[in-house]
Amino acid sequence: MAIRLPSAWKDELLARTDIVSVVSGYVTLKKDGRRYWGLCPFHNEKTPSFSVNADLNMYYCFGCKATGDAIRFVMEMERAPFMDAVKILADRAHMTLPELQEDPDYERRRSQRERLLNANREAARFYHDTLWKPEGKAVLDYLHDRGLTDGVIRRFGLGASGDRWDGLTAYLTEKGYSQEELSLAGLTVLKNGNAFDMFRSRAMFPIIDQYNHVLGFGGRALQKDLKPKYMNTTDTPVFNKRKGVYAINLIRKSRDLKRVILVEGYMDVVTISQAGVTGAVATLGTALTNEQARLLKRYAPEVFLCYDGDEAGQHAIERGLDILEAEGVPCRVLYLPDGLDPDEYIRKNGVEAFEAIRPMRPAAYRMERLKLQFDLTTQDGKTEYAKQCASLLRRVKDPVDLENYLQGLSLQTGFTKEVLLAQIGAQTQTAGKDVSAPAFSPLRDKPAGVRQPRRPDGYKTEQTLLALLATGRLSEGTVKETDFISPSLRQIAERLMAGETPDSIVSDEDLTDDVRQDAGEAFSLVTGADMENAAEVAGDCLRKIRIRQLEQEMDKLKESMRKLESDEKKMQMLTEIQELSKQLGQLKQQGR
């Protein structure tokens, strides 16, 4: 459930937000009539079916039924939680978040954050410009020797820090930044009254977040006597190495990404990306954290761990699997032989060989790692290996996967599957039940090609009436909630009559996807400018709805009358039917 925002504040945010401008940052739009049209960013299509309605401040796709307001659009495009999307739009609209409105220090912190981010952006430009100057030649030669092209160097914004003690500090001071600000940003070190650059004589890798803010830098020393070899910006008010990953800004732009490949180093990301491998990111000089796992979960359905093939890298993979599984992130392992790192493996074997590596499931990888600890040529070794593997396999929830693991383990150790199952703690006849998958949920998992339930007669008329109600052109009292038979349309109508706007309704995170789609489809039918004769059309809809209601009432009375035995009660009911028939005739006559 989303964090609750004050309704008035949220309405003001949506009112200040130009949804056409927001969507145009991601989708090429063309105006046609009162709406803007483009190719839907949520499904593949060749003919534009994605519309943006500036009058109602919402979007709707006539193909995949995606619908929402500016907040929901940013959530989908940025894979961002509700409050992150709100913050992005609040910054655009120069609005203070509600919980911070009473905080007198908030404006100072926000101004400070903007100053530090701007300083980092200027530093990134300085380092990148330095790379192409004589003082950056050593770094540029290093990057070229590693096989990087000028194009990929520019794509990642790579740079060089010169050997001057205060080159960057002097440059940014001239730009108007104080030494205290530069120290706070992690760009300058203040010591004994002197100011000098944090990074010197290093290849520079700007660390950019998913919103294209430069948060900090990673630097690789080229001189053997310069320690440490790798150095990151220290934690600052805008940078926390636990919460971000390198190159997240690039994978954010990739739609329909099948997996993220998590590697150890910045150079690994750059080189395998240049080779054509998509979705590569790296941690920021630390072991994988829970915060990073949750971030990656937004961008792809799986994470592949591809650390260096040495023992340290393999230990890091085991820790990474634990973190990803704890956060509910599906994950696998790309194992590189001979102690190679991804860059070395691609250089030696080619990108085709890298792409052909079969990803290992966590249990299979852990069993392979366990195998190194035991001598499987002895019975004691096989016994201990089987026990350790059985402990691992207790976590396997899929019965087919469990069966495959048991078959392999049985061949390696000589124990039967029944014995191994007993060691795991399951019974042969109930193992499948214990690990069965959760029941299919039609709201959570809507497979392509499944037909939607048939809508009742008159649904289109109710949709049109709801669309007219959303324009605000109908007099109060013209429409009542009882005019809607469809539960979802009645729910939406009640909210409109209570004063909610269409965009605020479709942005409600508590709304089910089905009701949101019904709302978006109805609201997309008309706009205020399209319906100059809204009252007349609404009257026609109400007449049709009343005709349908009368016909249904008459059908019920006729069915009930057949079951009556008392002639007196039959006559009373017949009188009711005749009165309804008279009303029905009058309504039909009006239609003619």
What general outline do the C-alpha atoms trace?
flat
Structural class: alpha+beta
The main pleated sheet reads as: 5 strands, antiparallel
Q: Report the β-strand fraction as a percent range.
A: 5-15%
| Domains, number | 5
Please compute the radius of gyration using only Cα atoms.
32 Å
Helical run tally: 26
Average pLDDT reading: 84
Distance between the termini: 50 Å
Low-confidence stretches: 427-453
Q: Give the number of DSSP strands.
A: 15
**Helix coverage percent of residues?**
40-55%
**Looking across the biggest beta sheet, what order are the strands in?**
1-2-3-4-5
What does this protein look like?
Strand 12, helix 11 and strand 13 form a beta-alpha-beta unit. The two termini are 50 Å apart. The chain is built from 26 helices and 15 strands. Helices cover 49% and strands 10% of the residues. A five-stranded antiparallel sheet has the order 1-2-3-4-5. A four-stranded antiparallel sheet has the order 6-9-10-11.
